[in-house]
Amino acid sequence: MAPTHDALVARSLAAVWHPCTQMKRHEAQPPVAIARAQGPWLYGTDGKRYLDGISSWWVNLFGHSHPHIQAALVDQLGRLDHVMLAGFTHAPVVELSERLAALTDLGHAFYGSDGAAATEIALKMSAHYWRNTGRPAKSRFVGLAGGYHGETVGALAVTDIAIFREAYAPLVRLADTVPSPDARGAAPGETAQDVARRAAAALEAWLQEHHSTTAALIVEPLVQCAAGMALHDPEYLRLARALCDRYEVHLVVDEIAVGFGRTGTMFAHQQAGIRPDFICLSKGLTGGTLPLSAVLTTDAVYAAFYDDDVARGFLHSHSYTGNPLACRAALATLELFEQLDALNANQALAQRIDAACAPLSQHPRVRHARRIGMIWAWDVDTPLPDFARRYHQHAMARGLVLRPIGKTLYAMPPYALDDEAVQCLAHGALDALNATLQEES
Ligand SMILES: *Cc1c(COP(=O)(O)O)cnc(C)c1O
What we know:
alpha/beta, pyridoxal phosphate binding, Aspartate Aminotransferase, domain 1, PyrdxlP-dep_Trfase
């Protein structure tokens, strides 16, 4: 017999350490036990239903329990569950690597299981490239203010979010940061492009001084999600690409959150028409079913490791590197982009969501209402210091999962919302905002 909701939650609190959570907070607001999920809906063990307005931390693309991905996984499970990828290979990893290369114009896919691992792989590869090419001093990194690239000790070096980093500062070899091209930083009369040029000028000044010790610049193209859905103009990426070329520094684009159609194009950096030296992928890569990450790079980087000397190779590994089940899930996800003509379908869906969310975007307390592709964000002008926590509770009470970042409310829903789900998102988000603002007095 299935345990009751309350019993399951109590056992979870006793046995499970939940991520990104001050566990004591759960005394007041316990976690919600989920029994199953279908499309954009999560179903609690208490029988309640919740719209997954943030795609379960940005991983789900086509809705939960998608039959096409399920069928691929069941098929794969009957053939090959796992085999180590050192000394072995298999059809799913080969096909996925070929497809990702065709989509990105890079290649030599290297696999990990999480986004943070992809960040670490790209940074290690970049520094090792410079070592292999006789320039070992180029071993440092630079990122953008407010950047987020994961939370393992190596990835934290380029993650500029104080609350995630402060306690671990002594463990981390901190990278430098350069100003973010966040378009909200525009002075009166300035365009987003002007902000991008100003930030690029700061990058140039930094590179002039530090290029000889710098391996790579890492950026989240077009949207710094964890910073609060900070958008920037593609001009920044064009200028950064040119500067990285001029100063001989790799450009790593972290598409972990924004890849796979989130910004309207398959990959965000494609809107700038640039070719990076490394791309990091994860989150939506498997449509939100299994953990998998990948790093793709250029032939030039690959060639610098290709040698008779073992130590010049890239000896990094994870036990589950290239797991066949995860690769099949990723292949099925890529097939769905074609079957559903997803990028075009999303344009129409986004317009329906725009229309439904117009009252929220025009709310007198909302600043910088913005959208790119399938990402919406609204900054809320409120003195409530714990706006995010309060808002989340009010949204959950309305059957809607939204977790603001600071005072930025955002939605990043699966690409599979019918009219009922669109209305739930738009009305729930607005009602929850009004209910939260009521608590100001
Ligand atoms: C989520 C995220 C990561 C880290 O991915 P994990 O799988 O959580 O380790 C890295 N970069 C960006 C841009 C992300 O959004």
